[in-house]
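S.,

As promised, the guanosine-5'-diphosphate run. Input:
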Amino acid sequence: MDLFEYQGKQFFASFGIGVSPGEVVTEVEDAVAAGERLGYPVVVKAQVQVGGRGKAGGIKLAGSADEVRAHALAILGMDIKGHVVERLWIEKASDIAAEYYASFTLDRAAKQHLGLLSARGGVDIEGVAAEEPGAIARIHIDPVEGLTDERCRAWVTEAGLDPAATEGTVDLLVKLYRAYTEGDADLVEVNPLILTPDGRVHALDAKVTLDDNAAYRHEWAEYEATQRRDDREQAAHARGLQYVGLDGDVGIIANGAGLAMSTLDVVNQVGGDPANFLDIGGGANADVMASALEVINGDPKVRSIFINIFGGITRGDEVANGIVQALGRVAIASPIVIRLDGTNAEQGREILRSQESDRFLSRPTMVEAARTAVELAAAAGGR
Ligand code: GDP
Ligand code: MN
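Predicted complex:
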């Protein structure tokens, strides 16, 4: 889950990292009131989950109520790289002596955490990495050892920051590493990390991606509440399904993420266009199957449905019974093609045979089933 900047700063603050005071608003007059409370100058900042807001005109300094009003009016509703601005973060402006870059993320290949620190902050870091890779100090951190103050100090020295920033940066980075690990983030990025003329170091921007699998051990309800999903994804999420909406017309249900991915590939191979990725996991019982069918049935683009199940621990006859029960509960708008294989596949197919019609077909292999599903979609006026 990606956080908005203001949430990222809230997250940072809960680990003792210095951020500027501010208020989040959705209306122009609330922005003005926030400016009055914070004291000028303030920065009016578009809250969208995309970088480069500054360049796009989504970050503006305001020295008076009238300026806040004008900027808020211009930025609310602005489209920044396809993201429409619905919220503003009004922040007390900072004086900047230097802008740096810092981040922690997982280096999967190295099986360690990776920290990046650069004296060239405030700008697009990919550009720095491409033009002047030596300007980024990298550090690998063993998750068991963690980041000690000593190592952090050596890292900061290597990055060549202003010596006035050393103490504050070491302190901030140790806290940022704690936020990243104890806070269960996949990414924390501060760009820019600033040094103020009076020698303080704090986070002027915040990019945070949290690990959704760790949600159960945190209070993330407020972050959850502002997540935007398309309607289908919302419906699937509410039913606890692993679902990704796509643009095609063949709805897909498979058990296991690997099989679901292969199913997308096979549908593509035979000239079709998948409408979604949906992994119903191991237990393909009637409830899960009914939920999956409901979600796909609610997608107006779907013209046919391909159910691809490989019986493993869940036996084919159980799956078949689940499907039959689910069909009794949900009125399906599109024809269904099923491929059932694996443990007790024959018993399963026998159960399905009683249901077969021109709206419910069984095919022995994945390719044949995909082909039939694609033909049915085309016949039903798909693309
Ligand atoms: P981004 O463009 O989406 O990365 O948005 P940032 O929050 O990083 O802001 C972009 C740039 O605006 C920063 O690099 C700063 O140069 C400038 N900026 C943001 N906040 C302040 C502030 O409080 N004071 C000053 N002087 N500049 C700011
Ligand atoms: Mn930034």
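The first helix runs from residue 5 to 13. The mean pLDDT is 94.

- D.
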